[in-house]
Amino acid sequence: MNVIEIKPDIFWVGAADWAVRDFHGYVTPQGTTYNNYLIMDKEVTLVDAVKSEFAEVGVANIKRIVDPAKIKNIIINHIENDHMGALGRIMELVPADTKIYTTMRGKEGMGRFFDIEGWNILTVKTDDEIKLGKYTLKFIETPMLHWPDSMVTYVKEAKLLISQDVFGQHLATTARFDDEFIECASITELDDATIDYYANILMPFGKLIKAKLTQIKNMGIDIDMIAPDHGIIWRKNPGRAVETYMNLSNGMADQRIVIIYDTMWHSTEQMTLPVMRGIRDCGVDCKVIKLRATPMSVAIKEFWKARGCLVGSPTLNNEVFPSVAEFMVHLKGLRPKDRFMGAFGSYGWMGGAVQWLYQNFRDMRLDAFEPGIQVQYRCKPEDDERCYEFGKDFATSLKEYHNRYQKSGALKVGLS
Ligand code: FEO
């Protein structure tokens, strides 16, 4: 892909990965991009590097603008392979005294990835600045957003925030900017990709995100463009990206119930139908996800978009079904909050899965509707009726739960 000038003398020199479908376990049906930026100032400066497999693409893009031997500074905002894997290759091409700016944790991490003997690494912290010529870079540490080493770089005179993973999306597209993307796709698709990224990568860090966004606001930083290291650049609507993150970190969700289940002999699956009817008859939107038919990252995104979640599992050897256990392990790691849970499932001669699920909800400190519902072997008409009533009762409680959120002001705008 061509290099693109995103601000006067500031260029996107990244790489599009059209083919990646499994990003460390995260399903990426639309691929992704590894964005990095070249600032052509008195001191030529590269901000971030691409994934190691794309090193030659990144180098070729830099060479379209400048001989890498002219690079004076390299900023590394985050020590993960997709954003600095190509650094080793770049260091072969830049002058030996090129300065590398990163956080203290960034320097430690860099030493684990590369032989940094002889590299001129300078550590920075929040509020540190370097003057490149007409542009000044200000650094803001963002620990645990989403790694301990993370920081963002603000180009003061350009009002440009280079935000590494934050505000990104896994989208490989020829459109580089939000307004271009919306023209060829839609704002809904962009919002969905942003929420998907947040749910799967940043969900555990909502409190930190809120605090960091507030800190940046209080620092008086004026942003008119946000350039993340994945996906599109927020040129027209940077405020939308910030608002979306504020809302997500505030626990925003739709008044909806997602049924996430798996099944052995279709009995648990059979239960979803009357449960869903009960939910719908209560006027609550409902979405159904079968785990072995759906990528895990999609199940996680749909979980995060809905206020309520019913997890369905058959009992297998006195335990929860393995694919449901896998979902719960992912969920536990993402430390969700402010979601209303319930469980249902079928069993043969002894239950276990539903109890296992409720124990996990308690361990995760999630609010839950009890008791769950179980059916032995197959749903008979009276079981269908019980499932229908369970769906209605769960939906009624969910509505009250969701209203409490809106009243407490936790929910600023609707998700959809
Ligand atoms: Fe896109 Fe944390 O790497």
Short précis:
This protein has 416 residues and is of the alpha/beta class. The protein has 13 helices and 24 strands. The strands form 6 sheets. A 7-stranded mixed beta sheet has the order 1-2-7-8-9-10-11. Strands 17, 18, 19, 22, 23 and 24 form a 6-stranded parallel beta sheet that branches.
Question: Can you walk me through this structure?
Answer:
By secondary structure, this protein is α/β, with parallel strands linked by helices. The chain has two domains: 4-249, Ribonuclease Z/Hydroxyacylglutathione hydrolase-like (Metallo-beta-lactamase, Chain A), CATH 3.60.15.10; 254-403, Rossmann fold, CATH 3.40.50.360. The protein contains 13 helices and 24 strands. The strands form six sheets. The protein has a seven-stranded mixed beta sheet with strand order 1-2-7-8-9-10-11. Strands 17, 18, 19, 22, 23 and 24 form a six-stranded parallel beta sheet that branches. Strands 12-13-14-15-16 form a five-stranded mixed beta sheet, with no helix packed on it. The site of MU-OXO-diiron (FEO) has 8 residues, from α2.
